[in-house]
C-alpha cells in the first residue's frame, strides 16, 4: 500500500479534489457517518415513463457506514468530527440561519514559487454542512495565480469563500424547519478533551497575557462553560467579491428528507472545478 497523501486540497496537491468531492465527503458527517455517492441527476425517465436512472428509491438512499461496521460506533466517530468543527463558523465570522445547526472548515492553498514564507494564496475554500445539506465554495483563478480581494489583501477561506457559502446556506435553509445534529454525551467524546478545529483567518499579533496575582493559569477561559479548552479566534474581514472564479457545490445529506440525496440546492447551479495551484494545500487546522 502506497503512502497516504497528506497534501489533499481543492485543485492542488498530489491528490486533487473538486468542490463536488468535498461537498460529498462532508455530507457523510452531516448524515452521521452514512456515505452516499454524489450525483448531479436524481432520476431520469424517458418520454414514455421508462425509468433509466433513479437515486430516489429507499435502496439507493440507504448508503453505507463509512467508519465502523457497528452503527453506533460509526455515528459517534462522525459526530465527534462534527463536534470539532462547530466553533469554526462563529470563529470565522460565519453563521447559518437562526436556530439551524451547522459545522464546517475553511482552507487555503498557498501560492508558492519557491518562497515558503509567501503570504500569497492561489486558492481558498469553505466546506460546511447542516443535517440537511452539505456545500462547498471554492475561489481561484484556475491558473494558480495569487488571489486578492478588492482591497488588495490575500483571500482566505473565511473571507470570500465563506461569504459565498454563507449566502447559499442561508437561501437553502431559511425555508426549512431547523434540525439539530444527533446527541453526543460527554462520555462519547473521544480523547481527554475535544479541541475545536481552528479557522484560517488572517493572522493577527497575539496580545500578551497579563499574569494573575492570585493564581496561575495554563489555559485561556472564555465566557462559555463549554469552550474553556478552546482557543479564541480573530474575526476575519470580509472584502467585496473579486473577479476570481467562485463555484459553489452542494450535496444533500439525504437522511430522512425524501429529496433523493441529489447534489445541489434550489436555484443554485453547481460546477465541478479543478484548479492548478502551485503551492501546498492546507486546511489550516
UniProtKB/TrEMBL annotation:
Residues 276-285 have a biased composition (Gly residues). Residues 210-232 have a biased composition (Low complexity). Signal peptide: none annotated. It comes from the Bacteria. Keywords: Glycosyltransferase, Transferase. Residues 192-285 are annotated as: Disordered. Gene3D superfamilies: DD-peptidase/beta-lactamase superfamily. It holds the Pfam family Transpeptidase. Residues 6-138 form the Penicillin-binding protein transpeptidase domain. This is Penicillin-binding protein transpeptidase domain-containing protein. It comes from Prauserella halophila.
